[in-house]
Structure formats: structure tokens, C-alpha cells
Input
Amino acid sequence: MSPDSRASALADDLASRSDAELADLITLRPDLASPPPQGTQVLAQRALSPASAALAGESLDLLGLAVLEVLIDLGPPESDTVSLPAVRSALADRADADEVEVRVDLLRRLALIWGPDDALHIGAHAASALPWRGLHLIGPPAERTAAELTRRLAALDERERELLGALSRGPALGRSRDAAPDADPAAPVARLIADGMLARIDHQTVELPPQLGQLLRDEPPLQTDNLRRPRPEDDSGSRRFSARDVDAAAGGEALEAIRHATALLRVLGATPAAVLRSGALGVRELRRLTKATGLDQQRVALLIEVLAHARLIDAGFPDPPPSGDTGEHMFAPTTTVDTWLHQPRERQWYTLVDAWLTMPRRAWQVGEPDRDGTAIPALSGDNYDSHAPAQRRTILSAMALGPAAAPVSVAGLVSLLAWQHPHQMRRLGSHVVEHTLREAREMGLVAHHALSSVGRAILDTDGADDAPIVAAMRTALPEPVDHFLTQADLTITVPGPMTPELAERVEMVADLESGGAASVYRVSEVSVRRALDAGRSSSELIAMFTAHSRTPVPQSLTYLIEDVARRHGQLRVGIASSFIRCEDAATLAAVLRSDAAAHLSMRALAPTVAVSPSEIRDVLDSLRAAGFAPSGEDSSGELVDMRERGSRVPVVRARRHAIPPRRAALNDDQVLAVIGRLRSGDRAATARPASASASVRAGGNGETATALIQLALRAHRRLRVGYVDAHGSASQHVVTPQALGSGQLIGVEDGTDDEQRFSLHRITSVELLDT
Output
């Protein structure tokens, strides 16, 4: 059957399909609808093209590809058609019959094949849907187990292993004059072809089977001896966790991610990071942030990438400028950070997870060598990958196929992904899957090697409504506590996440010593002074400990607070630029004799008052460095909160969302419009004109066209109208004219009750049709 006759046969098959079946085809293959085809003949030609067939093949799993290979092998030139029983028989030992029938039906829905079960036709370019050139799922290596292939690889000589290794690292196709059937059988390429370790594509081209490529790259082997879907569940572990345990562990990881992100934002606010010429964050700055936060470099790199995509950090001119400011752009928290810091924990978690899922970057590549052997910096262009968001969802979706709380192994997940998406087998290797699962665990979506309820809620939501996701996050997070345990060694143990009100009070008067499910804070003289600087009194601090501590407040803690408070605030620093006030003249005299007084150019105005030209922040820092305990006050004498808020940069660019797929899915209205255009084109193509003289073609006399339309109006005859719309798309319509006026033809299109309007100056042809 020639290509033209195949296109005609497929066009006939498509024309016989119902509107629902055509809608299914266009939904599965949206590339066929752009631009809208003028009839099923055009649709068939597009569906049979190699480029469109290759796109359609990306939706096939390994069994679907095997069925397609069998059809190609049994079809032309041996036979024009193939029967479904023949396909089932060819795969009987490796696949279930009902699953084979499902794949045949899918190929028919995709228009890669057509016809009844006893006479299936195959498109001329159906092989373009395969991710490889050869028929590797029905060839000699296909029915060999992974152990058999491993033994055969081990038996090869050094030259043969080098050849296969080179093909496994690069493109699987190779060129060799020894690929010809009449080549020297002792040549390495010829021996590998004879043993089934290479597939002959033509007389000069060979291809490495994907099964061997996986083994040579130390990936879980592609299982082709059994084409049933593999199970990713990890059965090696003896311990099992319930869904509640998985969600609880995921919630704990989320709290850690929020805490670490907050710590990183505070460090960047205090000391913004320099921007490289390339716009990235350098390795030296990354190490500084790692040391300042106490986190490992891989986790800091992930948080930097996530916070940057969420626009919680950005490059700009910090305000206020940090010490040692160079006047150049620096990475610092944006002005939106303060809003994020005061949001509920579930909202903070959602911001981080949404940014991780949608960022087109690979954070795990930070620190890896690039092509020149240099370590890749954070926020570098080398980390950009537009496929990253889709791959994350693909990996999580594969985990969601199993039962809730079922742990999966990396090897099992890689095998399942290779079976589900053979076209992406090289992109979804063990290295990518392992790092993606680690990042998902650190984001609180995976715990105990299982997908959490939050991860499933994200996959079940199309992104338009985040309420179900936030609700699942709220449930997964542990209930906040409003109490703690005070110890005699001046530590505070908090058995869970604190309420926002209590967290603000505790973090003001104590420093975090260790985080986790149960956090430990330590109270020191410096932390108590920080709380007093913020305007808290000693009685307020003691009352807070008494009200929220489930253990008696140690006397040592009470003594520490009262002792610091007794010395705190004797010196009062105000804005005059600046003044120093002290009710104890002896203390102020000691200040004036110190080195800080000379540095600040102080002078006494009275026994209890002095002034300085320095800013209030410089005066406070210098006096504290000299051993005094000053506090800030406003014009009314009230204590003011002088804590550092950190530098901020404005949000110049809006949040970047995930890159849409190459071909966006059509909505229902667009699908119906395409089907209407198809039907209209078919009717126009099959309509018979009344006579050759009863037509006006493009470039003809406009008056003649109008006269022909008026004749059709009087005689109630149908017209075939050639038309070009405002977008330059040409189409043909069979209409029954209803009116002619104001430069428009109004008519009802055949097969519908819709009234169409055609501008006369856009009509290219008019033909009077038989009744």
C-alpha cells in the first residue's frame, strides 16, 4: 500500500469516527489541531507524518512500544494488515492478553494504527514513535533476563566492551563498515551483531539495545523479558510505617525546612552575599552561609534556589546598606520576606513546596563540576533545566501508584519510570531520581521512602485551588504547643512547634541550641539583654516563664533576669544625634573616661547627660563593646526596640512560574471548534457543483460572485464557499444562504443549525451545488 493510499485509508477511518472519538484523538495529540485541519484528509496526513508520530510515541509505555514493534514487524512489506490474535501470540509469554488489547486500542485511538481487530493497518512512519531505530523489544536480547545479559557482557573481550561502553555513554547509534551483512564475521562489530548485542540498522549503522545500555551505565536494567509493569515497592526493609507515621515525619521535615529557611534569610539580611559577574552566588559565599547557619552545603544550596524562585531572596541594592557595602548588587531578602515570616506554618510550607515544584532548575547540581571542571555555583545558568518541574511531578506520580505509606526503592522507582516513560529513560536515571527524592524529603513531601498525604494532595490538585493542599499540610504539621520545660541549667525544652505568640517571646529571650521535633533553647545574659532592649521588663519575662513553663522556674533563671535588668537601662541613648542620659552620675563619668567616649566624641552637658554626633546605633554598639549595658529610648523616654531587622531588596521581577509544556492541552470549546472545522471541510470536499459555469474562483468578478449568491438565495440552493479568515486560515464551507447585505453573506452551515457570517471581501470562491 502506497503512502497516499494509506493516508486515504486513514482519512476514511477518521471520517467514520464519532465526534467523541475525534475529540479523544485531538486531546491525545494536540499537535494535530494546530492549525485546524481542513478535513479528515489533512488530519490523516498530519497524523502519519514522522514528527507527529514521534510526539504521539512519547505517551506510550514499554508494553505499548512492544505492541507497536510487533505490528511493524508483522506488517508491511510482509502483509498489508495484521490481526490482533497475531499480536497477542507474539507477546503471549511476556504480557497479559487483556493488557495487549488495551495497548492496541490506545494505538488505534492515537491513529498510529487503524482498522478492525482482524485487519489492523500501520502507518508508514509508525516507527518514528519508537525512542530507538531498531526493534529491540522483539529482538534477540528482548527475551533474555538481566542476569543472562550480564553474563554475556562479562564474557566479551576488551575491544567489544570498549565499543559497547562508548555507545552507552553517548548516542546509541554508531557507524561502522563492519555492520554490513557481508562484513568480516571475525570483526568485533560483526560478532556483536551476531550475538544480538548490537542491532543492525543498515549496512553502515548499528544501535546498542537499551537493555544493555542500562546495564553498562550501572542503571537498573530495563526488564524486557517480562513486559508487565514492575512494582517499585521496597520489600527488603523489615520495618514498616503507617500513613500517620509518614505524615508525621514529613511534617517534621517541613518544620525543619521552614526553620532553616528562616535562619538563612536572617543571615542574608545581616550580611548579604556578593553577586558574581554571571549573576550567580559564588562558592565562597555559599560556604560562608553554610558556616553561619550550621547546615550542610547541599541543603543550603537547595534553600537558596527555592527561596530565589519564590522571590524571597533576590539580587539588588540592600536597604539599609550592610557594613562594608561596595555599592554593587548583592543577594539579600526581599521586601516580601516579612510577610512570609508572619504567615502560618502551613502557608510558609506551601510557598517553599510550590517554589520547589515549579522552579526550572536543578539545585542538586550545585557544587558539581561543569564542563571545565569548575564547581557549579548556586543560582547559575548551568543549573537551568526546563524539564525539571515535569520530571519532579513524574517521579512523585510514579510513587503515588502504590498504596499509601508503601516505601519505594530508588532502583524500583527507576525501573518503573523506565517502563512508564521509555522515551525519558536517559533523563530519569538513578542519579536524578535519588537526588529528587532527597529534595522531596527535605521539602516534606516524602518520608520513610514513601509519598506523604501532602504529596498526594499536590498531585491530585491541578494548581488552580491550593486549599486542599494547605489543608493537608495543616493536618500533617504537629499541633503547636503553648508550653515548655525550664531546666536548672538555663535551657528551655519545647516538646513540639510553638504557637506563633509563644515562639516570638521565646526566641526573643533565648537562643536556639538544637532544633527538631523537640527544640532546646538556652537563656543567657546576652539573650536576656536582647529582650530588655526590645522593651520587655524583668517582671514581664519572669511572668512569661511562670505562665508557660510546665516545670518550676529555676531560681538561677530568676536571678539572671533580675541581675541583667538591674544593670540594663542605666544609660539611656536617644536621638539628638545622639544623647546619653544616666540617672547615676558615677556611671556616666565612667563612660566619659572610657575609650568609647573618645571614639564617639562624647561631651558632658550635665552630670547625668552627654551628647555625641554619632548615630544612635553606633553609640549603642560602642558602649556595649566597652562593657556597658545601654538601651534606646524615644523622645518620650520610653524604651524602643533596637533589634536589627536586616537588609532588604525590592522585588523587581515577579515570581516565575513553571514553563508550560511544548503543546498546551486544548479546552473543550477549542476541541469542538476543531471538530466543526473538520466536518465542514469534509462536507465541502464531497459536495458536487451544479456545473463548471456555476462557480466563481478567487480573483474573479465580485459582481459575478454576488449574482451567484443572489441566485442561490432565490432558488434556495446550497453554496460551497471558499473563505480566508482574519488570521489567514483558509477553509471551505457548505452553506444555505439566508441573507446578503452590508458586505456580508449570512448562511446556515450544513450539518449544524449555526448561522455563519462571511465577509464578501474574504470570500475566495463560490460554487453553486446540486440540490
